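Bumping my old thread because nobody answered last time. Still need a sequence for this structure:
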């Protein structure tokens, strides 16, 4: 018996005698939406061809798609959720834009500039990490509470002037929020 076959057999044993397959209708819908948005097209083509009962190959390709998604701002999908969570005024403060500009970008009457799309995507990714630990009220409050890991600063105070996600403050915010996936300390 080969090593790969032994690993599959071990996973099947741990899963009560069966190998867990991904939820195929959900996966297909997700791939359709990502393909429509132009994200990870090459990986999606490969993922559509892979045998879903091969968890190693499927997992590897899904991780690649998720990495591509993390690197791809999609304001047309992110505006609604972030406005619903924060409201126009609060989100405008985090993005460092006026309420009127935010409304125009969010309703599609003006294209979202690349820098604002990057900021919005950054906020959405951080929120995604925070939702593993907090409810909506907790997510909103998290941005305004001082954090030891941020040298006693509140995350929102590190999003100054013409910030980009690659600046030190936002990188520290992202690292802290992402750490919540693995620990409860903030």
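Sorry it took so long. Here it is:
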């Amino acid at each position: 018996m080969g090593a790969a076959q032994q690993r599959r057999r071990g996973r099947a044993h741990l899963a009560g005698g069966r190998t867990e397959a991904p939820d195929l209708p959900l996966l297909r819908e997700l791939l359709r939406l990502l393909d429509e948005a132009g994200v990870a097209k090459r990986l999606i083509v490969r993922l559509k061809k892979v045998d879903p009962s091969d968890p190693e190959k499927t997992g590897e390709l899904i991780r690649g798609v998720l990495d591509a998604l993390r690197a791809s701002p999609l304001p047309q999908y992110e505006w609604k959720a972030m406005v619903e969570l924060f409201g126009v005024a609060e989100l405008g403060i985090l993005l460092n834009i006026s309420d009127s500009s935010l409304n125009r970008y969010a309703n599609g009457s003006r294209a979202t500039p690349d820098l604002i799309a990057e900021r919005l995507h950054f906020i959405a990714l951080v929120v995604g990490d925070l939702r593993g630990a907090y409810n909506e009220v907790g997510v909103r409050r998290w941005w305004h509470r001082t954090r030891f890991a941020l040298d006693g600063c509140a995350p929102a105070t590190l999003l100054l002037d013409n910030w980009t996600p690659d600046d030190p403050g936002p990188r520290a915010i992202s690292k802290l929020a992402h750490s919540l996936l693995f620990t409860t300390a903030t």
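Residues 9 and 19 are 8 Å apart (CA to CA). Let me know if any region looks off to you.
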